[in-house]
Design brief:
Layout lengths: L7 E6 L3 E6 L25 E7 L3 E7 L4 E5 L13 E2 L8 E8 L6
Antiparallel strand pairs: 1-2, 1-3, 2-6, 4-5, 4-7
């Protein structure tokens, strides 16, 4: 559930592309609506894997088909328009992203 229009949504595709978009960029759909495009799906991006609500106090965790887990800070992902393809989050040569979710920021060990 989205609580405000200032909330950020992160979209991740199977070929490692991702983007942050403000929830206010999506219009409400009425009865009989055909939907709203959230990411340009091409051969370069692959299929959409997931959309999660994010903030700067979290990290992103990606899981690939081969079992690799990749953790990255949320502030490294650029905010783009609703219908854009996104930016390269991770290189998945011959592999693919199958799951994306948020996790608490990693504590720095002194």
């Amino acid at each position: 559930m989205i609580s405000s229009e200032q909330e950020r949504l992160l979209s991740v595709s199977s070929k490692g592309m991702g983007k942050q978009t403000l929830a206010g960029a999506y219009r409400l759909q009425g009865r009989g609506g055909m939907g709203v495009i959230t990411m340009k799906i091409t051969q370069k991006t692959g299929d959409l894997v997931g959309i999660v609500s994010v903030d700067e106090s979290q990290d992103l965790m990606l899981l690939t088909k081969s079992g690799k887990m990749i953790r990255m800070p949320m502030d490294s992902i650029r905010e783009t328009g609703r219908n854009a393809s996104g930016v390269k989050l991770v290189s998945v040569e011959g592999d693919g992203v199958v799951y994306a979710n948020t996790c608490p920021k990693e504590n720095e060990v002194e």
